[in-house]
Known about the structure:
alpha/beta, Rossmann fold, 2 domains, four-stranded parallel β-sheet, 8 strands, 40% helix, 16% strand, elongated
Amino acid sequence: EVHRYAAVVAELAMHKQFDIVHAHDWMTYPAGIVVAATSGRPLVIHVHSTEFDRSGENINQVIYDIERKAMHAADKIIAVSRFTRNVIIDRYGISGDKVEVVHNGVERNGKNNWALNETGIEKDEKIVLFLGRITMQKGPEYFLMAAKKVLEVVDNVKFVMAGSGDMMDRAVEMAAGLGIGSKVLFTGFLRGEDVQKIYKMADLYVMPSVSEPFGIAPLEA
């Protein structure tokens, strides 16, 4: 699919005027390479995470090869953290002179109009929040195991899992299996003002990620 997308984008780009080609993560890298080559414009790739972040050492070789090819083809690479920059240099064989660090940022918003009664959370309950993709990289199972331990000591706590992902069904089943299903609220994917509201409602934000190059969620929190 990424290669079909690259072919479509290359055709569309022939009718556009632009100064640089800026590609974000591996799914857009093939398109960026093609467009840069046909247009003669410089290629900048923005690395939000690498295959090592998403899969540990059990990497998908196809994705790794796409990433490495793009990194070598790029005129400049932007990494979201110094950690990610080091991974690019050490694991992909890229010169440090080519890699710049630009940290993620968020827009601050002070609005909060979400009522507790919309969520089923009682006023006297403390709210512990997980917000992010419910995938292996984000460690949702560790959040639930910690929730089980907390609820063995205190009861007036609600654990909110805000997000979606390929481990969503497994997380719901795990919460039920641990006997804490009534204490875990799964909101599904949130965006915009809903994200700001759930942050403001939370008493504690937890980031149990197995790997995190430079997460936007803790900045927002």
